[in-house]
Design brief:
By secondary structure, the chain is α+β, with helices and mostly antiparallel strands. Helices cover 21% and strands 39% of the residues. The protein is built from 6 helices and 14 strands. It has helices at residues 95-102, 105-110, 125-134, 143-157, 171-177, 182-195, and strands spanning 2-24, 34-44, 50-53, 59-65, 69-82, 159-160, 179-180, 200-207, 224-232, 236-241, 246-247, 252-258, 267-272, 277-288. Strands 1, 2, 3, 4, 5, 13 and 14 form a 7-stranded antiparallel β-sheet that branches. It has a 5-stranded antiparallel β-sheet with strand order 11-10-9-8-12, covered by helices on one side. Strands 6-7 form a two-stranded parallel ribbon. The longest helix is centred in the middle third of the chain and has 15 residues, at 143-157. The termini are close together. The model has no long low-confidence stretch (mean pLDDT 93). This is Transglutaminase family protein. Residues 174-244 form the Transglutaminase-like domain. It comes from Bacillus taeanensis.
Length: 290
């Protein structure tokens, strides 16, 4: 499926600001599941844009706005072709063998960065209590089945609420609130995966939520989305979306991945000037007919 993605971010400042230094991650990846054929980023005020590849292989752009300005606009336009790959989910070995691989020193050293606790994904007594109550590993016959169970448990035990949390919310806070947004659902599932020694990484991107059979534009409001990829022994990275309790398909467009949200923040920066600012973000994902 071919998708056209527009991501517009606008900062408005009450007073002119200067020396704005910014880093953005808004360029979709190209991998076995998707092809990013075009990606353009326009900055207002007009400045030079530079790029590099970060530790996780994500494309990062950065720029500076030295002169005084009361508005900063960042617009990313992309065309991405996604495929409906039915990825292998379970290996041909027993669950016991999969667990032995996960718990081996060699495996844990190789995927250490996706097994460690972070400020977002702490393995706390509250997390262990949730897992004991909501998840039963003995009912799983493979690592992938355990992942499906974790996703389903999170989906059924928490309420999606855009007003409940913020970008700094931790797993401990979400467990207390019992509600959150996609970022929180993903952080929680990552923490649970790490408790069971399954490498997991945070994925940032978009999800097309329109009608696949209708080429007309819809009034559906899109937004950035997040899901996770977990590593199944002898299979590889597989994607799951605990917010919707679903598998990753042609509707999903990946920008990048990291250990948690902090590694894959779409836009972050600093500037000199007044603290008061307004932020407006508009995302549009459309199906494109050839």
């Amino acid at each position: 499926m071919k998708l056209q993605i527009s991501h517009l971010t606008k900062y408005s400042y009450q007073e002119p600001v200067v020396d704005s230094v910014n880093e953005i991650r808004l360029s979709p990846r190209t991998d076995s599941r998707q092809l990013c054929s075009t990606n353009s980023i326009v900055i207002e005020p007009n400045v030079s844009l530079f790029s590099y590849e970060d530790y996780f292989g994500n494309t990062v752009h950065y720029f500076n706005v030295v002169s005084p300005h009361k508005e900063l606009v960042i617009e990313s336009q992309s065309i991405v072709e996604t495929s409906e790959i039915h990825q292998k989910q379970a290996s041909q070995v027993s669950y016991n063998i999969e667990r032995q691989i996960l718990e081996s020193e060699q495996f844990q050293n190789k995927y250490a960065e996706y097994l460690m606790e972070t400020n977002y994904t702490g393995i706390t007594p509250q997390l262990k209590a949730f897992c004991k109550e909501a998840i039963d590993p003995t009912k799983a016959e493979s690592v992938y089945q355990l992942l499906e169970q974790i996703s389903a448990s999170i989906y059924s035990n928490f309420t999606y609420d855009v007003d409940a949390t913020h970008v700094q919310t931790t797993v401990e806070e979400m467990l207390r609130l019992k509600r959150g947004v996609c970022q929180d659902y993903v952080h929680l599932m990552i923490a649970v995966c790490r408790l069971y020694h399954i490498p997991a990484r945070y994925v940032s991107g978009y999800q097309f939520i329109g009608d696949l059979n209708n080429s007309d534009e819809t009034e559906v409001q899109h937004a950035s989305h997040a899901w996770l990829e977990a590593y199944v022994p002898l299979v590889g990275w597989v994607g799951l979306d605990p917010t919707n309790n679903g598998k990753i398909d042609c509707r999903y467009v990946k920008i990048g991945h990291g250990r948690n949200y902090g590694d894959i923040v779409p836009i972050k920066g600093i500037y000199r000037g007044g603290e008061k600012q307004d932020l407006e973000v508009t995302v549009d994902v459309k199906k494109v007919n050839d």
